[in-house]
């Protein structure tokens, strides 16, 4: 179940990592809120507690002012992204399905179990196993496909630079050190 490609994390987001993506966006939103609140509290304290004039406070705390502006921009953009995904989870839809308008009033989402069940499924459902085979440290590394251009391929071990032998079978190649 593909959701979307995210340039922020440089990865495709789908069934196995969507929960972690939403947690990442939530945590960065909280961090932006914390940054902005901290900077605003420093500015307010400098004006009220230390009796600084507003102009002096601005001059002395330019970093906090810039971080506040940056934090506010991040809060707005992250909140919009966060609420988009919260709504997508509530309807059990992917970003791809929303952008392509797969479901409508005439064509309802068959996967929607209701808001609470969708959230429970999102939060508590176990992460499906990877379809990529896990290899033992001693087992050879399979390479899918084979060379079609007829060139002789020479492989070197990454760690010590020693040559590696490539045994080619009809269906797959196996690297042996």
Terminal Cα span: 37 Å
Structural class: alpha+beta
Name the quaternary structure. Answer: single chain
Number of strands: 6
| Radius of gyration, whole Å | 26 Å
- The SSE order reads EEHHHHHEEEE
Provide an overview of this structure.
Helix content is 46%, strand content 15%. The protein is an alpha+beta fold and 177 residues long. Strand 4 (155-156) and strand 5 form a beta hairpin. The radius of gyration is 26 Å and the shape is flat.
Q: Secondary-structure map with pairings?
A:
Blueprint: E1 2-6, E2 11-14, H1 18-48, H2 54-60, H3 62-90, H4 95-99, H5 115-124, E3 141-144, E4 155-156, E5 163-168, E6 172-176
Antiparallel strand pairs: 1-2, 3-6, 4-5, 5-6
Helix pairs in contact: 1-3
Explain briefly what this protein structure is.
The chain has 177 residues and is an alpha+beta fold. Helices cover 46% and strands 15% of the residues.
Any key phrases for this structure?
single chain; 177 residues; alpha+beta; four-stranded antiparallel β-sheet; 6 strands; 46% helix
């Amino acid at each position: 179940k593909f959701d979307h490609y995210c340039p922020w994390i440089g990865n495709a987001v789908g069934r196995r990592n969507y929960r972690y993506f939403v947690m990442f966006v939530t945590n960065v939103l909280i961090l932006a809120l914390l940054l902005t609140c901290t900077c605003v509290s420093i500015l307010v304290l400098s004006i009220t507690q230390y009796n600084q004039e507003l102009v002096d406070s601005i001059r002395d705390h330019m970093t906090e002012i810039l971080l506040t502006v940056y934090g506010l921009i991040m809060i707005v953009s992250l909140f919009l992204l966060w609420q988009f995904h919260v709504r997508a989870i509530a309807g059990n839809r992917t970003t791809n399905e929303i952008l392509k308008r797969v479901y409508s009033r005439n064509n309802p989402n068959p996967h929607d179990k209701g808001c609470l069940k969708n959230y429970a499924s999102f939060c508590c459902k176990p992460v499906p196993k990877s379809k990529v085979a896990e290899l033992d440290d001693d087992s050879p590394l399979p390479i899918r496909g084979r060379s079609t251009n007829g060139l002789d391929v020479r492989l070197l071990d990454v760690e010590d630079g020693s040559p590696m032998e490539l045994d080619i079978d009809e269906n797959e190649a196996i690297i042996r050190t």
